[in-house]
Amino acid sequence: MSSYLITGASKGIGFEFVRQLATDTTNTVLAVVRNPDSLNISKFASSHPNVHLIKGDVMDPKSLLEAASAAAAITGGKLDVLIHNSNAVDMATMPYTPSQFPFDVQATRDMFEPSLNTAIYGGLWTTNAFLPLIEKGVQKKIVHISSGMADLDLIKKSGLSYAVAYSVSKAGMNVQVAKYATELAPKNIKVLALSPGWVDTWEGEMPSEVAQANQFMLEQFRAEDPSLQGQIRPEESVRKSLEVIEGLDSEKSGSFMSHNGNRVDWF
Ligand SMILES: NC(=O)c1ccc[n+]([C@@H]2O[C@H](COP(=O)([O-])OP(=O)(O)OC[C@H]3O[C@@H](n4cnc5c(N)ncnc54)[C@H](OP(=O)(O)O)[C@@H]3O)[C@@H](O)[C@H]2O)c1
């Protein structure tokens, strides 16, 4: 009988966390979304009494404080596990390598902004908004969804010179997680940066340029894992991630690991 709160629950991995956690009807699952009318999640919540939709935008601190009040009203002021999953990127400049960034202050900020806003500032505001509930929870776990793209060995081995703002932001997230873990250890609160693997969360038909980019990445990732076949499904990613979260203890707190529970198998 545990309570979970997931940000960015409208689709992809966030939605899958909600779906799998809701199958245990003793769980209370709080799905934080920017738009509670989003079709999939609102339909799902309406047929699962243990799922509660809460409006919240991780880029907006006020909305997170309101979301925390709404969550407290549902759970009686406590929360066992917080999963900060929301993410945004500037897709147009994802292919840029560092030397391609322009000598233009505003343009450069614009390229970093969505990633920094969700991973770093959003990570702080989300964690701080729900911390009073986590302190009263039983499990006392906070998970930030990171990415293997922030692993230095994987970057070097696979030649991942692009996705600069995304990877830098997730690397910053990993450091922020270690800072939280250090601060919150005396309260027995465990904090983890967790990469969910390489996951197919594309909705609808995949445009050919996205399929081509995926094929390119697959070939790069094979430098790390020659047996890699492609992306995994959200079902597998979340099932394994939940096992890692289940095993999160004070010894592992502050670390960065994959859905496979280590810092080697990123796929
Ligand atoms: N898919 C992968 O291969 C992969 C690999 C490594 C790491 N990850 C990480 O796993 C997480 C989930 O990935 P995904 O592929 O499921 O992503 P996704 O399909 O793009 O979904 C992102 C989610 O974040 C939400 N979001 C965006 N901006 C938000 C904001 N300001 N406030 C609240 N929610 C916001 C989106 O909600 P809206 O519907 O409101 O836009 C959406 O629910 C991300 O942190 C991502 O970096 C994914």
Automatic annotation (TrEMBL):
<dbReference type="GO" id="GO:0016616">
    <property type="term" value="F:oxidoreductase activity, acting on the CH-OH group of donors, NAD or NADP as acceptor"/>
</dbReference>
<dbReference type="InterPro" id="IPR052184">
    <property type="entry name" value="SDR_enzymes"/>
</dbReference>
<dbReference type="InterPro" id="IPR036291">
    <property type="entry name" value="NAD(P)-bd_dom_sf"/>
</dbReference>
<protein>
    <submittedName>
        <fullName>Short-chain dehydrogenase</fullName>
    </submittedName>
</protein>
<dbReference type="InterPro" id="IPR002347">
    <property type="entry name" value="SDR_fam"/>
</dbReference>
<dbReference type="Pfam" id="PF00106">
    <property type="entry name" value="adh_short"/>
</dbReference>
